[in-house]
Design brief:
Elements lengths: L1 H23 L7 H20 L9 H19 L1
Helix pairs in contact: 1-2, 1-3, 2-3
């Protein structure tokens, strides 16, 4: 069970990395794949953005979520 949850966290972290890279390059926000990516990542990123607003145009919420998921993965996989 812990290994499966660890793999799901890995997939979510990959989605976050793709979202970060997309923020650096021009893309079509109406593309279906990108809209799905936003729907997957926004529920976690938006609450973090309330507490950590962008600083000089840089959004640090994906970094915070990424490291939080890494910590969660270590706890879950380590215990189970």
């Amino acid at each position: 069970m812990g290994v499966i949850l660890g793999k799901l966290i890995d997939l979510y972290q990959i989605a976050l990395i793709v979202r970060i890279v997309l923020s650096w390059v021009p893309h079509n926000p109406y593309n279906q794949a990108i809209r799905i990516l936003y729907k997957i990542t926004d529920p976690i990123l938006n609450p973090i953005r309330k507490y950590i607003p962008p600083f000089r145009g840089i959004d640090f919420s994906p970094v915070v979520v990424f490291f939080g998921l890494s910590l969660l993965k270590k706890i879950v996989v380590g215990i189970l």
